[in-house]
Task: structure prediction
Amino acid sequence: MSSARVVVADDSLLLREGLVRILEEAGHEVVGAFGSADALLAELADLAPELVVLDVRMPPDYRDEGVRAAIEIRRRSPEVGILLLSQYVEVTYAQELLSSGRGGVGYLLKDRVASLSEVAEAIDRIRDGGTVLDPEVVAQLLGRRHDPLSTLTPREREVLTLMAEGRTNAAIGERLVIGVGAVEKNVTAIFSKLGLEDSGTDHRRVLAVLAWLQHSA
Result:
């Protein structure tokens, strides 16, 4: 994985320095580290990062400054990857950040991250246009939906079950003895019924599978 220009924003000095260290050890170039979202936004254009790692709650009010900053960063520079690290799930703003379906977004809960190396791995996935979501974030986002899986047909449920096993459309077709075109039609219907907009990445597939896992738990 090639080096990425990364900016870090977290009001905790220890965590901020830890993130800088692990990112640099992973070969990334940390071009800025800030203790507030406002300071980050003020320097964003000059730093031209490829990815931003930031806390959800930061000065001055410790509410949702980081998420609002992430949304603003996406508005200014849609190509910049975003990784939110937080002790909290801000459902409304997280939903807004994810609603574009562009991918290149992550939302991890600090107390569920076992090591800083997990953060580095998440950054690599986000750089590739993927979506990295903590299961608790997904659970709360899906909790806002009205039993989205109840509208799926038996065949669509079969397809979604096989998607959850990590099978490709071709593999699903072989398993169900149907053509790839039929699989794609079912996958499209699943996305539509779950309200997942086209992202051009695996973003919708990930969320669809997580919806199935949440329902099956």
About this structure: The CA atoms of residues 164 and 209 lie 5 Å apart. DSSP finds ten helices and six strands in the chain.
